[in-house]
Recover the amino acids of this structure.
């Protein structure tokens, strides 16, 4: 009989006091933090010096980064399926090596085509070393303790910008942008290639262990089953999840791109706007910290619906509540919802489709979400221009947010597992 991951955790189990899965979690907390810090958050720090040296404008340099994000989304299903079939150790080690070499190549670029070629390939590296492959590892190694494992990784990686923006700024100031990249490449190689290659294991069974370090009789009796991309796209639950998280990504990226000009347009000072924009990211950390204890009190489906409703409430406050109080209420609620959404997505993929198909499902969701991510800033910007202000754009985002609530609610209701879990 085939069981879902949630079903497999029921019954009496015996836990190992020193489960190797926690070693993997600590390694992934380190590697995802450094990967996001070097490949994602540091890019903006290099722009002024790089543009001056290469005689480029902001649109040209921003386009290279956007290209990488698009490529990462496009290759995500392939990367995910490879993780399912071959294991994350090969994929993440390859990605870390590729990323290290590309950061070195970035330090040597002299023309715009060089920059774009480097960041086109960087998109492949991003897909191999960011959250999705790491979460696929967690899905295989943990069931009952999965929320805690996900929380550790995302809480630590949530500090990537806090660590690497000032670090990169100091390196660029002291060494220049090319030497700074050389230093970051060395840091990236040492802290990601080695842990991925030496510590990651595909499955607990490789070490004679069970998920969570338990000895569940039900888990031993199950046989793994995989699905194809064609079967996945025909599954109504997947389509609902894809719709829900794509719409959520649309609102998140749209506000990330337009929150600063929106608040400036309302007459707030640049210093206040900077604090508010930074506060959205900081508020994600307590949101993530609350996810695991909330999940012990409420079902995943209820919590997912509540998180998406929280996002919509934050948008409504930004639209309807005037003054500083409205802005800070939005910052707190939207930031916390953003932080929990990362964990909700990983948990729902594992709970609905099982760990055997986690890579393909998560990668496919990333691909679809990348299309929404690419469209969001343009759509809101175009509506702002047509309406001569952000009010219409906020109404659009509120409608999109409401639709995401309906989608995730229906996904939770139709969560009957149609693909066997491991």
């Amino acid at each position: 009989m085939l069981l879902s991951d949630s079903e497999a955790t029921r019954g009496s189990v015996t836990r190992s006091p020193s489960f190797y899965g926690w070693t993997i979690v600590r390694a992934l907390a380190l590697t995802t933090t450094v990967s996001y810090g070097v490949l994602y958050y540091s890019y903006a720090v290099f722009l002024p010096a790089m543009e001056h040296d290469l005689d480029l404008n902001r649109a040209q340099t921003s386009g290279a980064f956007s290209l990488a994000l698009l490529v990462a989304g496009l290759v995500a299903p392939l990367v995910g399926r490879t993780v399912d079939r071959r294991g994350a150790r090969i994929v993440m080690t390859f990605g870390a090596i590729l990323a290290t070499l590309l950061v070195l190549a970035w330090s040597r670029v002299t023309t715009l085509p060089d920059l774009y070629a480097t960041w086109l390939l960087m998109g492949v590296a991003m897909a191999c070393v960011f959250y999705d492959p790491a979460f696929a590892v967690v899905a295989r190694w943990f069931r009952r303790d999965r929320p805690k494992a996900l929380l550790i990784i995302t809480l630590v990686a949530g500090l990537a910008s806090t660590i690497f923006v000032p670090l990169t700024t100091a390196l660029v100031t002291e060494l220049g942008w090319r030497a700074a990249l050389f230093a970051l490449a060395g840091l990236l190689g040492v802290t990601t290639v080695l842990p991925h290659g030496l510590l990651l294991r595909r499955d607990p069974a490789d070490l004679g262990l069970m998920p969570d370090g338990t000895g569940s009789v039900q888990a031993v009796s199950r046989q793994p089953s995989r699905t194809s991309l064609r079967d996945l796209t025909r599954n109504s639950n997947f389509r609902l999840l894809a719709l829900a998280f794509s719409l959520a990504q649309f609102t998140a990226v749209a506000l990330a791109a337009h929150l600063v000009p929106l608040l400036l347009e309302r007459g707030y000072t640049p210093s206040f706007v900077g604090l508010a924009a930074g506060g959205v990211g900081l508020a994600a950390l307590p949101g993530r910290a609350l996810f695991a204890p909330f999940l012990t009190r409420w079902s995943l489906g209820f919590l997912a619906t509540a998180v998406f409703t929280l996002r919509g409430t934050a948008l409504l406050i930004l639209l309807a509540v005037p003054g500083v109080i409205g802005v800070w209420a939005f910052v707190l609620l939207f930031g916390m919802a953003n932080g929990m959404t990362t964990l909700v997505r990983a948990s729902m993929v594992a709970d609905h489709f099982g760990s055997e198909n986690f890579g393909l499902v998560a990668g496919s969701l990333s691909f679809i979400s990348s299309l929404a991510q690419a469209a969001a800033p343009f759509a809101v910007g175009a509506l702002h221009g047509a309406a001569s202000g952000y009010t219409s754009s906020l109404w659009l985002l509120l409608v999109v947010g409401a639709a995401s609530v309906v989608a995730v609610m229906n996904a939770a209701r139709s969560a009957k597992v149609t693909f066997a879990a491991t």
User: Anything to note?
Assistant: The CA atoms of residues 50 and 149 lie 38 Å apart. The radius of gyration is 21 Å. The chain has a mean pLDDT of 88.
